[in-house]
């Protein structure tokens, strides 16, 4: 806000002071929100890091198991065994609220097949394949949880950035402009008041001088 574009009146001064007070309150609230978002974000990132390391280690184990299964079985047998799944999974997506940020909540459940069931018969498959499929099935809930945490962390990071920009806009642009405008109006009002006082004093002096002249003229007569 350029001070030259502000109307230097007391009403405008009161209005700007009100806006500045509101901006300061908003600035404090946004800073508190940013700090709390950062706290929540760091906790999510810490949990996400630990879970990702665990999932990556489990995936490495699954990859090794599938490599062993592929080594002892023919490619055709593996393709036929894994071609038609008997299990059906259901991913339920809901939403929660974290510091005014809508975050996803994933819930995964196996509908058909039951625990420990496989997509194939055991007559022509190897135990290594059974082990690899079981290990992959075991880490599926952790994969869903990891996806939830990573999406939550991403959304919190975006909200933190938005809040940071708003805080900076208030702190470095809006509030200084309002303070400058208030200072400019106050100086102009003070200057006008001093001018009015000076004019009143001059008028008073002129009136006193006129009264004195009139009195002197009357005395001479």
Description:
The structure is a single chain. The protein has 221 residues and is mainly α. It has a single domain, classed as Helix Hairpins, CATH 1.10.287.3240. It contains three helices and two strands. It has a two-stranded antiparallel ribbon with strand order 1-2. Helix 1 runs antiparallel to helix 3. The longest helix is centred in the last third of the chain and has 94 residues. The chain is rod-shaped and about 145 Å long. The relative contact order is 0.15.
What layout of secondary structure does this protein have?
Blueprint: H1 10-72, H2 75-83, E1 88-98, E2 101-112, H3 127-220
Antiparallel strand pairs: 1-2
Helix pairs in contact: 1-3
Q: Compute the number of helices.
A: 3
Structural class computed from helices and strand pairing: mainly alpha
- Catalogue the unreliable spans: none
CATH topology: Helix Hairpins
> In what range is the share of β-strand residues?
5-15%
Ends distance: 65 Å
What's the SSE pattern? Answer: HHEEH
**Arrangement of strands in the largest sheet:** 1-2
CATH architecture descriptor name: Orthogonal Bundle
Count of all domains:
1
Largest sheet: 2 strands, antiparallel
Percent range for helical residues? over 70%
Number of strand segments = 2
Arithmetic mean pLDDT:
85
Radius of gyration: 39 Å
